[in-house]
UniProtKB/TrEMBL annotation:
Keywords: Hydrolase. SUPFAM superfamilies: alpha/beta-Hydrolases. This is Lysophospholipase, alpha-beta hydrolase superfamily. GO terms for molecular function: hydrolase activity. Residues 68-298 form the Serine aminopeptidase S33 domain. It comes from Pseudomonas indica. It holds the Pfam family Hydrolase_4. Transmembrane segments: none annotated. The keyword Hydrolase applies. InterPro entries: AB_hydrolase_1 (IPR000073), AB_hydrolase_fold (IPR029058), Hydrolase_4 (IPR022742), MAG_DAG_Lipase (IPR051044).
């Protein structure tokens, strides 16, 4: 494992992504640490780390560009995650000939904001619109496919159901999408009891993937992992759930991958909601898969990437 980088030093170096400035040794150290350098498997690809402003936050963002991209994948990570953990998705997308554009959500990774917190889920929509603006500024090729893991999937659900989907959009991929977390009734009750007294509680790390090396890295070696669960984020989620469950239907047809061993989200309820909101969404169920599909075992990743590749062929 490479030597850890210093997140605060790197945050101070981030410049607008569209500026195209040369990268520093700190940026290269970050990319090496998370295995985000595509040169070994995709030597022709170029990559750049920068930032943009949205919803009052400085949002860290990153682009990967093959020589002649045929489409673009816009990627949103899950809660407690950051784009540094999504090298498998980036590798698959580059293999498909896609440019990839990703960002760290507010309070996550290299972006600004209170750790793992948000005032309202509407702020995530502002970040997503900012990501679209970056794709336009960079001239990234259409169609723009969307991919969201867990909370990233919730953001995309919100956009498809309550926003005005852009004409550039292609397919939408939802990996273990969040509508309600598991045991939501108890979580909401706990939030209501704790809210007057505390701003956060210690985070409980879970084993949400069958990849033991990934679990060890996230639990013990990743310097960008938040260590708390803010009550503000739970409150924002509690206001978002009834709004999204009451949203009107959409004619879009998202692609959904869901593990049946997922103990993080209430996936049966979530699939019922999603299937009622969209016109014949396509679903791949993986009996052995847990929640963090972007970092599940190689066999499981191979299976769902084959499912997605068949449907996203240029």
């Amino acid at each position: 494992m490479p030597e850890p980088f210093q997140p605060e030093d790197l945050r101070s170096l981030l410049r607008p992504l569209a500026a195209g400035e040369d990268e520093s040794p700190a940026v290269r150290a970050y990319r090496t640490y998370y295995g985000l350098d595509p040169s070994e498997r995709h030597p022709e690809a170029q990559t750049r780390l920068g930032s943009f402003e949205a919803a009052g936050y400085r949002i860290a963002t990153q682009v990967w560009l093959p020589t002649r991209p045929v489409a673009t994948l816009l990627m949103l990570h899950g809660y407690y995650d950051h784009m540094g953990l999504y090298r498998h998705v980036v590798d698959w997308a580059l293999g498909m000939g896609f440019a990839v554009l990703a960002c760290d959500l507010p309070g996550h990774g290299l972006s600004s904001g209170a750790p793992a917190s948000i005032g309202d889920f509407a702020e995530y929509q502002q970040v997503l619109r900012g990501l679209f603006d970056q794709a336009l500024a960079l001239g990234l090729p259409q169609p723009w496919h969307l991919l969201g893991q867990s909370t990233g999937g919730a953001i995309l659900l919100d956009y498809l159901l309550t926003g005005e989907p852009r004409p550039e959009l292609g397919e939408t991929i939802l990996l273990a999408p969040l509508v309600r977390p598991r045991a939501w009734g108890w979580s909401r009750f706990s939030y209501q009891m704790l809210r007057p007294f505390v701003e956060s509680i210690p985070r409980r790390f879970s084993i949400n993937s069958g990849d033991e090396a990934f679990i060890d890295f996230v639990h013990h070696q990743d310097p960008l992992q938040p260590r708390i669960l803010p009550t503000a984020w739970v409150g924002a989620l509690s206001r978002w759930i009834p709004r999204i469950e009451g949203a009107p239907r959409s004619d879009r047809r998202p692609l959904i991958v869901q593990g049946e061993a997922d103990l993080t989200v209430d996936w049966r309820h979530n699939l019922e909601v999603i299937e009622s909101k969209f016109r014949e969404p396509e679903l791949l169920l993986l009996p052995e898969a847990r929640h963090h599909l972007a970092n599940e075992t190689e066999d499981l990743r191979r299976r769902y990437f084959a499912f997605l590749s068949e449907r996203l062929k240029p």
